[in-house]
Amino acid sequence: MWKVVTYLIFATATHAAPAVNDFANVNQFALQLLENTYAFQENFNTKNVVLSPLSVWSIFSLLAEGSSGDTFFELMNGLRLPRDLRKTQSLHMALNSLLNSGNQDVILKGQSAMFTDCSLEVHPEFCQAATSYNTDIYSVDPSNTTKLANDINYYVCLATDGLITNAVTSEALENLRMVLVDALYFKATWTYQFDPLQTKQGAFYDSLGKHVGTVNLMYQKAPHNLAYPPQIEAQVLEMTYGKSSQFSMLILLPANGVPVKKLLNNLATNSLDWMDELRESGGGTDIDVLIPRFKISTQQDLITPLQYSGIHSIFDAMKAQLPGVSDTPLYVTKTIQSVELEVTEEGTTAAASTVVGLENRILGQRFEANRMLNLS
Ligand SMILES: *[C@@H]1O[C@H](CO)[C@@H](O)[C@H](O)[C@H]1NC(C)=O
């Protein structure tokens, strides 16, 4: 009944950012994609929008290494990749080590795989790039889509501790020559857990103050960082996980009358300096926190939101340029993301999978009479 916009790993990446690697660009890409995904989903009146931008970034930045021409420039700009390939590679490594840096009360893991048609000649340099990003490579017969779907779903299921069992259907895999898969799993307990006895049903309102439903509201009084950056037009609460408090969730509550759309635009267009303000906001003071207990499952195709981010030609049968992947011309026809997210008194469990499918693209000239022809 209520609207929540959330995305994974964002806070994680900023919080643990080592000085040598600047995750600001990745976050900027993430916030832009979130704004665009929301704008796209609004057309369908979707109530909840959930996004795992990091999986998308990982797969498309690998494809960027095999791209050229407009495809390359659009990916560089859209993903906000550093001009220097070695910097992108070290960013990848840093993200990989971050993704596997959990501790006893925070489990965080990422896994990626490339399934390629055994009759497709993939350039060794591209395979090397994939391997250097810890991507498992499998040679498959994609014409048996039932088997391929089973293999991919099994891979994702293992990578997400059984949270995502249906990352793809066999229908979605038809005609694909290559499939790139990225899976993330996160499970952590709050530094300050909620007492389930304090959870009560409560009213939930939309941005105009209209009562939209009833939710289970969890309550606690605990020390958290809380800020109200005016440029964001929202109250921001940081709730940390585990004893080390190294990872956290940011919850943004738009100011009265500020629609979610405006909040997302503020996030995408402002610098992330407000995060420093948040971190310096004290944290010693006890805050009364009331947040809903919730569980969300979504599956969506992210091609249109990525196009809104300026990435076009890689999805275009006529224009995609991926000569570094294979001599066989390919283009991306699927970008299916599944997310499972659950927030409880104890903590958070989240999983995401992104499946990017590539097909053979059409070579040469084309005559497509799909519009009115002016014959006189
Ligand atoms: C596809 O693979 C499955 C095994 O997962 C097999 O049972 C089936 O016969 C295969 N179909 C074709 C058409 O080869």
Automatic annotation (TrEMBL):
It holds the Pfam family Serpin. GO terms for molecular function: serine-type endopeptidase inhibitor activity. Residues 34-374 form the Serpin domain. GO terms for cellular component: extracellular space. Residues 1-16 form the signal peptide. Keywords: Protease inhibitor, Serine protease inhibitor, Signal. Belongs to the serpin family. PANTHER family: GH21475P-RELATED, SERINE PROTEASE INHIBITOR, SERPIN. This is Serpin domain-containing protein. It comes from Diatraea saccharalis (sugarcane borer).
